[in-house]
Write a structure and sequence with these properties.
The structure holds 2 protein chains of 2 kinds.
Chain A (H helix, E strand, L loop, with lengths): L1 E2 L22 E6 L14 H10 L4 E3 L5 E3 L2 E6 L4 E6 L13 H12 L28 E5 L2 E5 L7 H4 L16 H6 L7 E3 L5 E2 L3 E6 L13 E6 L3 H9 L5 E2 L10 H5 L3 E13 L9 H13 L3 H7 L5 E3 L25 H14 L5 E7 L5 H15 L2 E7 L2 H9 L6 E7 L5 H9 L13 H12 L3 H18 L2 E13 L3 E2 L15 E2 L1
Parallel strand pairs in A: 2-12, 16-17, 16-18
Antiparallel strand pairs in A: 1-5, 3-4, 5-6, 6-8, 7-8, 9-11, 10-11, 11-12, 13-19, 14-18, 14-19, 15-19, 20-21
Chain B lengths: L1 H28 L4 H4 L8 H10 L6 H13 L12 H36 L4 H15 L2 H15 L13 H30 L3 H8 L4 H39 L4 H10 L3 H29 L7
The chains are: A alpha+beta, B mainly alpha.
GO cellular component, one term (chain B): plasma membrane
Organism (chain B): Pengzhenrongella sicca
GO biological process, one term (chain B): transmembrane transport
């Protein structure tokens, strides 16, 4: 018998309960206009995700450290990591009075998975029996037993599956949502710590007002009188508002203030590692980068990059040089994986490896890293390519692509020349989420077309492992293979940089770099 | 007069068609598939991307997309954004805000520009004239975003007289600072234009005649000098209204004003043709109407100009 989630919040120092009781002030927080109506399965960006996390409660929630705790779930049980039985707490309600039942979850997930609903988050359900990427097909693996129980059958054993259930795609929906989903997305009805202040609280391009939900019974009880999320066009404007106490919580510091924000905000500044991994991918088919020659060249390129210097000079310490392919905030992360020494700057080693590769087939041409020039990547790409150029004595430069849409089109169509930037923000705190979607043969975000049967087998074995510890040991072995093949060159982990005004207390950022707004206090 | 206005209004139709076609073609020519950007760095399931493309007619040839868009406009349906909102609603939120901002900027630049320009023109070569010229030269030399950031930081963060950004709180008070920033460069132009125009007209024959008739200095300046000097200034102000509305993009970004500039910028970035075309087309119409209005004002300013 294995229960995936502990029931009591851990009592570590950073786990929070407001010591000075609830406050009544309304906290203003930074946000951005959601790209879509507020439907959990169709929200794939932080602007909408932040709001959904406040107005919905899922089966589990994540504390500041990324540990999962039951929220709506009473228990999530499995014998074989493939068949799960989910039991809900009794007497949970949506803010319109409807009960939160097993059906609320099953219907919402089926809606999200159905191809013709074209939900951006549909792939979250692709390991549940019945899922199809090609035709409309119901999730046959979801079976409602009674009001508070349903069973889930996965396509294969996955021990970290319960860990995912705090992600917004897995939130329940009331029956009224399906009558007119677009209208529902304008005025969503949830079961979380907060609810919309009134019909039409979401003022497009301006903000959204949330008030505490009096019927909420979980651990994330609002410690303030409400949250006003204000949408900003530029981070600079938001930062000035923060300095003027017109904004209480900001979760992203503008580049222009990297060097000054810690002095300006003092102990109100936040700068800590987040679950964001940044790299550049060298496609498997790129000339000179496959086979044994490719392995040598990839290792040489990695050793030719002075990550310490670049994170200091360009990011002013708001990035942490990478020591693996995941993130230090994820349980099971290690900075001592065999092979990780290729991430250390080593001029001679790099030149030596490059010369060995030249012996196989002489190098010609220019090494390029593609990036979208509307995303503020130029500075680091130039620094990285210069580092490669100076160390290896070859031509290396950035390949700017005007818009993100064009960049994604070239990456998706495999028409991009040379290497290109890749970034991954974890959806849920599990090593598996940082490895499987990116490097498993044929996976959705495997844009470099990497394929390694050994790696695939280890991931599959890890997913089916009986415990998270066993799984993490197998994932670590899988990373050892990545360090030999280097399908992508790890660069750094992005930090969450943020701050708070002088008017609020208990500001803490979660594992996913979003502030835990429900516990912020303001008088 | 009515015939003249009617003719000018009819001329708008080909301009409208040409503008929409041209802008639609430009957005269509933007590289990349806007739908693929919706999935972020993670990418998108191809079948889902295909569905979204079909929903927004992005899978059809250019001319079909354009004609479908035109067909919608005839029934006042300007299409929807990727987030499923009616473009007409988006415009209904953005235009009033930008219009308020632009009118405030126009009043500011018009009033102060003409008054200071008149004084400088009447005292040409004096100390006041030299100071005003120097200051206006400085304002023209500084890019709007520099003025914007500096003003925002000093007034909003250091002195705390006004909130640094506007956001949802659109009022005369909150728009004051952005309007001054937006109108600053034009203010300098209006001032210099008025000054030159006034100082030229001061030596004109009709002014000498008016003075010789024994009219008071005040009457000469206001009725004869100013009225004739205002013709180039009014032309400038009229064409500037459209310029202010389109140029508000930088100011709106700095002060976080939910207006046309912000909306347009985002729509261009996301390659949403219906939104971009609708917004720009309305801007074009504003331009045309403002120009018509200026032409009609000429008649009031200069009796020699009559429209038949």
């Amino acid at each position: 018998m294995l229960t995936a989630c502990s029931d009591s919040p851990s009592d570590t120092e950073s786990s929070s309960s407001s010591s000075d009781g609830a406050s009544s002030g309304i906290v203003s927080a930074w946000g951005s206009e959601p790209q879509n109506p507020l439907i959990p399965t169709n929200t794939s960006e932080v602007g909408g995700g932040k709001i959904l996390d406040l107005i919905y409660a899922g089966l589990v929630y994540y504390d500041a450290d990324g540990a999962a705790h039951n929220e709506v779930a009473e228990s999530i049980e499995t014998e074989d990591a493939q068949n799960y039985t989910v039991t809900l707490k009794a007497d949970q309600t949506f803010t319109n009075g409807d009960p939160v039942t097993a059906q609320s979850f099953v219907d919402a997930w089926n809606y999200g998975a159905l191809l013709s609903n074209a939900q951006l988050g549909s792939y979250f359900f692709d390991d549940i029996e019945g899922f199809s990427y090609d035709v409309d097909s119901p999730l046959t693996g979801l079976v409602v037993v009674d009001d508070t129980t349903f069973t889930v059958k996965l396509l294969q054993p996955e021990s970290d599956w319960p860990l995912r259930l705090g992600y917004s795609a897995f939130y329940p929906l009331p029956a009224v949502a399906f009558e007119d989903i677009a209208a529902f997305g304008e005025n969503p009805i949830g079961n979380g710590s907060y609810k919309l202040a009134e019909e039409g609280s979401w003022e497009h391009n301006v903000g959204i007002s949330l008030i505490p939900n009096p019927d909420y019974t979980g651990d994330r009880v609002a410690q303030n009188g409400g949250v006003d999320i204000k949408f900003y066009e530029t981070l600079d404007g938001a930062y000035n508002d923060l300095l003027a106490d017109q904004l209480d919580v900001l979760d992203s510091i503008p580049d222009s203030a990297y060097s000054t924000f810690q002095d300006e905000l003092g102990d109100r500044a936040v700068n800590q590692p987040a679950a964001i991994f940044q790299s550049f991918t060298i496609p498997q088919g790129l000339a000179h980068f496959s086979g044994d020659e490719g392995k040598l060249r990839r290792q040489a390129i990695s050793k030719a990059i002075n990550r310490e210097e670049i994170t200091d000079a360009i990011f002013q310490g708001t990035r942490t040089p990478a020591s693996d392919f995941t993130s230090p905030v994820i349980d099971g992360w290690s900075d001592a994986i065999e092979g990780s020494e290729v991430l250390a700057f080593d001029e001679e080693g790099a030149q030596d490896l490059w010369a060995q590769a030249d012996a196989i087939s002489p190098w010609e041409g220019t090494f390029t890293i593609g990036y979208n020039s509307d995303g503020g990547h130029q500075a680091w790409v130039d620094a990285v390519t210069n580092s490669i150029k100076n160390t290896l004595g070859i031509e290396a430069q950035g390949n700017p692509i005007p818009t993100f849409a064009d960049f994604r089109t070239q990456v998706t169509g495999r028409t991009i020349a040379g290497a290109f930037r890749t970034g991954w923000q974890f959806d849920y705190p599990s090593l598996y989420n940082g490895l499987a979607p990116l490097y498993v043969t044929g996976a959705g975000s495997n844009d470099g077309d990497y394929s390694s049967p050994e790696f695939d087998a280890l991931l599959k074995e890890g997913a089916a492992a009986k415990s998270v510890e066993d799984a993490n040991a197998l994932f670590e072995q899988a990373e050892e293979i990545l360090f030999q093949d280097l399908p992508a060159i790890p660069l750094w982990y992005a930090n969450v940089t943020g701050g708070s005004s002088t008017l609020v207390d208990n500001v803490e950022f979660g594992w996913n770099s979003v502030p835990l707004l429900y516990q912020v206090t303001k008088d | 007069m009515a015939w003249y206005i009617g003719r000018r209004v009819l001329q708008m139709i080909p301009v409208f068609l040409g503008a929409t076609l041209l802008i639609y073609a430009m957005v269509f020519a933007l590289p990349g598939d806007p739908v693929l950007a919706l999935g972020g760095d993670r990418g998108l399931n191809p079948a889902v991307a295909e569905q979204i493309r079909a929903e927004f007619n992005l899978d059809k040839p250019f001319i079909v997309q354009y004609l479908l868009y035109l067909k919608g406009i005839l029934t006042l349906d300007f299409g929807t954004t990727f987030s499923g909102r009616e473009v007409i609603d988006v415009m209904g939120e953005a235009f009033p805000v930008t219009f308020k901002l632009a009118i405030m900027a126009l009043v500011f630049e018009g009033f102060f520009g003409i008054v200071l320009g008149l004084v400088a023109g009447l005292r040409k070569g004096g100390f006041f004239d030299a100071t005003v010229l120097l200051v206006s030269l400085l304002v023209i030399a500084l890019p709007t975003f520099v003025i914007g950031f500096v003003v925002q930081f000093i007034v909003g963060v250091k002195l705390r007289w006004l909130p640094p950004t506007v956001g949802g709180d659109v009022s005369f008070q909150t728009l004051l600072m952005p309007a001054i920033v937006l109108g600053a460069v034009s203010f300098a132009y209006v001032l210099r234009l008025t000054r030159t125009s006034v100082s030229e007209n001061l030596t004109a024959d009709f002014v000498r005649t008016a003075t010789a008739k024994g009219l008071s200095r005040n009457r000469v300046v206001t009725v004869h000098v100013l009225r004739n000097s205002l013709i180039p200034v009014v032309t400038f102000l009229g064409s500037d209204l459209g310029g202010l509305m389109a140029g508000a993009i930088v100011t709106e970004g700095i002060f976080n004003i939910p207006g046309v500039g912000n909306t347009l910028y985002k729509a261009i970035q996301q390659g949403q043709a219906p939104t971009v075309v609708s917004l720009v087309t309305v801007l074009v119409v504003v331009y045309i109407v403002a120009n018509l209005f200026v032409d009609l004002l000429y008649a009031a300013l200069d009796p020699r100009i009559r429209y038949a």
